């Protein structure tokens, strides 16, 4: 099977062109290929497929084999893949995902895509739709108990569920302990992506993420979007800010006119390869 390894801010996935390749059991394949010792090594597997309604369809599977609705870093790389490999000549494309249709606006330099701006759509704030078990109208700065300690959590869906918590010092925060417990808390019937955020100023947020089904990753695009939305709702940031992740920076804007969230960031090809299945 031919594949391409790509990364967005260090959030790395294995991309397979399903116009020419077949993946019979993508869940199983994601677990095998993502293993960093016995496989290729990645945060998961992304399938680039034909779509009846859009230019392309994206399916993505975490390293534990679970299918996710969306990934902001991965979808930027899908845009770069299809343009750089001649599957499209358009610089504005629509991609079908389990979280709905996403529109990509690609900036091309020397014939290759360098930056991608993604219309991530409207944030979902109703607890039942995120989903989170709550009788509140919105889940903003609500108490969640982890190991007897109370965390103030704001929940947002960007097509996939996120729980955002603010901390004093993100570098010293015990993400490896609190992250998995937050992910699997009974409040979240479909588990949760957990973002922990330090506010540097109204235009700069520093974030680490524990991704559902993958653990800590170097970046999470939907998580950065959820963080910006949460920060506006909590009155700690402007509607456009830089979100600093371990793998680099994303520019996130929650547009007041259309209520859509826009994410701008890089997409990078690492290498092409072929693997015996």
UniProtKB/TrEMBL annotation:
* E.C. code: 5.1.1.7
Record-annotated site: Could be important to modulate the pK values of the two catalytic cysteine residues: 162, 211
Reaction equations catalysed? (2S,6S)-2,6-diaminopimelate = meso-2,6-diaminopimelate
Pfam families registered for this protein in UniProt: DAP_epimerase (PF01678)
* Catalytic-site annotation from UniProt: 71, 220
GO cellular component, alphabetical, reads:
cytosol
Among its keywords, does the record have Cytoplasm?
Answer: yes
User: What GO terms are given for molecular function?
Assistant: diaminopimelate epimerase activity
- Subcellular location, in the record's words? Cytoplasm
Asked whether the UniProt record includes Cytoplasm among its keywords, one would answer yes
PROSITE patterns in the record, alphabetically?
Answer: DAP_EPIMERASE
Q: In which pathway does it act?
A: Amino-acid biosynthesis; L-lysine biosynthesis via DAP pathway; DL-2,6-diaminopimelate from LL-2,6-diaminopimelate: step 1/1
User: Which InterPro entries would you find in this protein's record?
Assistant: DAP_epimerase_AS, DAP_epimerase_DapF
Question: What UniProt keywords are attached to this protein's entry?
Answer: Amino-acid biosynthesis, Cytoplasm, Isomerase, Lysine biosynthesis
Look at the named UniProt entry and state the broad enzyme category this protein falls under.
isomerase
Q: Where does substrate bind?
A: 11, 62, 72-73, 160, 193, 211-212, 221-222
Q: Name one GO biological process term.
A: lysine biosynthetic process via diaminopimelate
- PANTHER family given for it? DIAMINOPIMELATE EPIMERASE, DIAMINOPIMELATE EPIMERASE, CHLOROPLASTIC
Q: How does it assemble?
A: Homodimer.
Tell me the protein family, please.
Belongs to the diaminopimelate epimerase family.
Q: What is the protein's known function?
A: Catalyzes the stereoinversion of LL-2,6-diaminopimelate (L,L-DAP) to meso-diaminopimelate (meso-DAP), a precursor of L-lysine and an essential component of the bacterial peptidoglycan.
The protein's name in its UniProt record: Diaminopimelate epimerase
Origin species = Acetivibrio clariflavus (strain DSM 19732 / NBRC 101661 / EBR45) (Clostridium clariflavum)
Gene name of the encoded protein:
dapF
